[in-house]
Amino acid sequence: MSETLNFRIDRWNGVIIDMSKQSLENQIFVDKLKESIAQWTTEGKRGLWVTAKTEHSALIPSLIELGFDFHHAQPGYLCLTKWLPVDIPSHIPGYANHYVGVAGFVVNSNNELLVIREKYQGLKNNTIAVWKLPGGLADAGEEIGATAVREVREETGVESEYICIIAFRHMHNFRHGCSDLYYACLMKPLSSEINACPQEIEECKWMDIEEYSQLNDISEVNKFFVQRYKEIISTNTGITLSKVLSFDKQATHSVYGIGKV
């Protein structure tokens, strides 16, 4: 081949092709890819990965014809894969299959819990939204405690400090076939004035924690969080964060375990 594709070999002897790094015209790219697939098969290469950005979408039908299949998509790009070995089942890993949700369990010195009612929660069934904890999905690369601080601030206007994880819920078939990890974080309030988000929150207030736990319409999971909070207060023990060196000692990992709070 007079021209070759721009690609790299990964640690599992697979091939990664980034379309944004190609300088070939579309049809030439397809022809070169077809030739390369034959060569890579002979060389014993395994999984092929192609990342196609929006501007490369015209090439997707050609990639499908070459045996690629959709792996995952995000705004701005689509990832396709192809498994080359014919005598070995595909070892291409699936895409991320969990959401990470975080709630702030903010308790003040008066034993009051910061709770919210969402603006749109009850619209579908024309009911009043239940009282729940402020929280939301973690952003990519965001620590659990940082998510709790951000979500509490965004939804209630209250500044808070992360202390520990109270408990977490693992639920399946949550959204788009994915599972959900939902962390309840014990938070220390650094302010008390409420300034609820007008776009998302119908009502927000400090509620006596015993009163909250006795409400009929709160979830059993939140009742469990209240009980675990009481145990943490009585034992000074919770799920705490430690920073531990990575295997190559070039970075640190966030590791959670039982510890004193």
TrEMBL record:
GO cellular component terms attached to this protein's record: mitochondrion; nucleus
UniProt keyword Metal-binding present: no
Subcellular compartments: Cytoplasm; Mitochondrion; Nucleus
Gene Ontology MF annotations: ADP-ribose diphosphatase activity; NAD binding; NADH pyrophosphatase activity
UniProt cross-references to SUPFAM superfamilies, sorted A to Z: Nudix (SSF55811)
Nudix hydrolase domain span: 97-230
Primary residence: cytoplasm
InterPro entries: NUDIX_hydrolase-like_dom_sf, Nudix_hydrolase6-like, NUDIX_hydrolase_CS, NUDIX_hydrolase_dom, Pre-Nudix
Protein name: Nucleoside diphosphate-linked moiety X motif 6
Organism the protein comes from: Biomphalaria glabrata
